[in-house]
Design goal:
By secondary structure, the chain is of the alpha/beta class. It contains 14 helices and six strands. This is 5'-3' exonuclease (Including N-terminal domain of PolI).
Length: 302
C-alpha cells in the first residue's frame, strides 16, 4: 500500500541499528577488513543501504543509530530498562562505527545521541518535518514507531517489504497510533524489559483503551473496569488501582520523546559532500568487492 505524499515532500528516516543487527545475525563471519576485523554486519548493512538509495532516490533522508544500551534517559528513571539485553561484543561495536562511516561517506545525515535513542531522534524529526508539511516514512520493523504515524505517514519493514499507515497499526494491535505508548505501558514490552501491569495482556489492553481512550482516563476511572463484560474485569480493576504509579512510569519508557536532538528542517535531511577519494579509501579498508565499490562510488556522486 502506498499513501499519497503531502505537497511539501517525504522524509525517509532509517532505523540504522536495527539493520546492522539484522546483518550481524544473518551473514556468516566470513568478511574481514584490511586489519583482520570482522565486517559481516558492515557488508550486509551497506548492501541494504545501497539498495534503499537506488530504489527510493530520496531527496530527504537521515539514518539514526543508538549510541548505547545503558545511557539513555530511560535508564535513569528505570534502571532495569533493557537490562535483559546483552551489550554488543567489541567486534560488533567496531562494526557499528564502520557502518556509521559508510553513512557519512555517502554524505547522508546521521543522527546519534547518548541520552536519547534512535527512536527519539526519529520521532523528533518526524514531528519537525510535519510542521514543514512533510510526510515521513520510517524504515524499521520496530512496533514502537506506530505511535508516530500521522495521516500521511508510513512505516516500512524493508526486509519483509511490508508498508503500513495508521490503519495498519490498528489492524496489528487493536489501538490507534496515539494509544500505542499507553498500550505498551499496560501490556508490557518484553523486548525492552518493561513488565506492564500484572494481569493485563495485549487483548485486554486494547479493550481498555478502546473503552476509555487513554491511560489517564483509564486510571482515573479504574473502578468502572470491574463492571466491563470481559473475563477477569474485577481483578483487572484491582490491579490498575494497585499499580497506578508503575503504569505511569512505564508510559514514560514506552512514549517516544519528541524533544530529542533530531533534525528540525528539511535542508538538514539533504545529502552533503561525498568525496570520491574518501569513499575509495573506505572501500579499500573494508575490502568491499568490485560490485559494492561501484555502487557506493556511483551513489556518492549521485
Amino acid at each position: 500500500m502506498r499513501l499519497d505524499p503531502v505537497s511539501a515532500g517525504t522524509s525517509w528516516l532509517v532505523d540504522g541499528s536495527l539493520y546492522v543487527f539484522r546483518a550481524w545475525h544473518s551473514l556468516p563471519d566470513d568478511f574481514h577488513d584490511r586489519d583482520g576485523q570482522p565486517v559481516n554486519a558492515v557488508h550486509g548493512f551497506t548492501r541494504f543501504l545501497c539498495e534503499l538509495l537506488e530504489r527510493v532516490r530520496p531527496e530527504h533522508l537521515a539514518v539514526a543509530f543508538d549510541a548505547s544500551l545503558t545511557s539513555s534517559f530511560r535508564n535513569t528513571i528505570y534502571p532495569p530498562y533493557k537490562a535483559n539485553r546483552e551489550l554488543p561484543p567489541p567486534e560488533l561495536e567496531y562494526q557499528f562505527r564502520q557502518c556509521r562511516a559508510v553513512v557519512q561517506a555517502l554524505g547522508l545525515p546521521l543522527m546519534i545521541d547518548h541520552s536519547y535513542e534512535a527512536d527519539d531522534l526519529i520521532g523528533t524529526t518526524v514531528w519537525s518535518m510535519r510542521a514543514h508539511g512533510f510526510r515521513s516514512v520510517i524504515i524499521s520493523a520496530d512496533k514502537d514507531f506506530g505511535q508516530l504515524l500521522g495521516e500521511h505517514d508510513e512505516q516500512w519493514d524493508y526486509g519483509r517489504n511490508r508498508r503500513w499507515g495508521p490503519e495498519g497499526v490498528f489492524e496489528k494491535f487493536g489501538v490507534h497510533p496515539p494509544q500505542v505508548a499507553d498500550y505498551l505501558a499496560l501490556c508490557g514490552d518484553a523486548v525492552d524489559n518493561i513488565p506492564g501491569v500484572p494481569g493485563i495482556g495485549a487483548k485486554t489492553a486494547a479493550i481498555l483503551l478502546g473503552h476509555f481512550g487513554n491511560l489517564d482516563q483509564l486510571l482515573e476511572r479504574a473502578d468502572e473496569v470491574a463492571f466491563l463484560s470481559f473475563r477477569g474485569a474485577a481483578r483487572c480493576s484491582a490491579s490498575l488501582k494497585q499499580h497506578r504509579e508503575q503504569a505511569l512510569l512505564y508510559r514514560q519508557l514506552t512514549r517516544i520523546a519528541l524533544d530529542a536532538p533530531g533534525l528540525d528542517h528539511p535542508d538538514a535531511l539533504r545529502r552533503g559532500p561525498a568525496p570520491a577519494e574518501a569513499m575509495a579509501a573506505l572501500c579499500e579498508q573494508l575490502r568491499f568487492g568490485p560490485l559494492s565499490r561501484q555502487r557506493l562510488l556511483a551513489l556518492s556522486q549521485d
